[in-house]
Amino acid sequence: MSTLADIQGAGLGLKRELIPQFQQFYQDPHIANIQFVEIAPENWLGVGGKALHDLTWFAERYPMVCHGLCLSLGGPDPLNIDFLKQVKSFLSHYQIPLYTEHLSYCSDIQHGEAGYLYDLLPIPFTEEAVHYVAQRIRQTQDILGQRIAVENTSFYAACPISSMDEITFLNAVLTEADCWLHLDINNIYVNSVNFGFDAHAFLQQIPGERIVYSHIAGHYQETPNLLIDTHGKDVIDPVWALLDEAYRLFGTFPTLLERDSNIPPLPDLVKEIDTIAAYQNRYGLLPIAKATPLQATLVAV
How far is CA 228 from the centre of its chain? Predict the structure, then answer.
């Protein structure tokens, strides 16, 4: 049975085009630094046939993390309780100890009916939004019977009604919801370029005791002052430097390489996985369940 302490080291998102390569190279020492995999539950709920066989194969061999796509924590419509119950059953069946979601919204209500959008949109940084989102996170945790982690997201337009900056909003939500942080290193860098703030100063204000998990990825440079979080390129040096500083400030935490487009062969991805592992080894690998008193106990709330 996988526990939170089993999610450590470096991991890779499970893309179906990579599955044959994973199975081919399983137990090959060249991919030994891939210590866990991440899946989006929306892509695997209710699958059968070969997809079910593949999912079971991975669940039997790797610790898994679920990173959700469509819960829409900041959305105007009620939380999808039926979906959350499916997620709870899925986590239990495959013994997946960690579920994370984006601190954003991806749903809307038109003519009295809820519908899903095709992007993750930023929540206004207001006190009202802090209370609203924190309540929805607590409701999610009540239904799942466990803490979740929320991810800081990238965005491209500042909401005109925001009354605080991103880091103040993020920290307020974490405190009021009493949830964990899924720290996305690339998103900090992307937003810092797009909105002109100091990424390292932002990082230094993160409550390290709440970090339970992390992403790192590449992005696309549209213009010198506009970066797009595509997960379609190699990680660049300034983003690696942010990860290095995060480990220095907070200790190591499990870090996943995101690659969602222009996916190279597994051996090429492993080069970046090995880089994550090298940074972690520089500071000493510390299982997240022992990192802080907050992270040491997974509680039903």
Answer: 17
The whole-number pLDDT of residue 231 equals 84
Token match 């979080």: residue?
229
Q: Can you give the pLDDT at residue 110?
A: 55
Q: Low-confidence residues of the chain, pLDDT below 70? A: 105-119, 285-301
Residue appearing with tokens 């526990």: 3
Q: What count of Cα atoms within 13 Å lies in the side-chain half-sphere of residue 6?
A: 15
Bridge-based pairing state of the strands 34-39 and 64-67: parallel
| DSSP per position, 188-220 | HHHHHHHHT--HHHHHHTS-GGGEEEEEEE--E
Using alpha carbons only, what angle is made at residue 230 by residues 129 and 100, rounded to the nearest 5 degrees? Answer: 45
pTM of the model: 0.90
Burial of 126 (0-12, 13-18, 19+ CB in 10 A): middle
Q: In the prediction, which pLDDT does 293 show?
A: 36
For residue 288, what pLDDT is reported?
45
Sorted by where each starts, the structural domains of the chain and their CATH numbers stand as 4-296 (3.20.20.150)
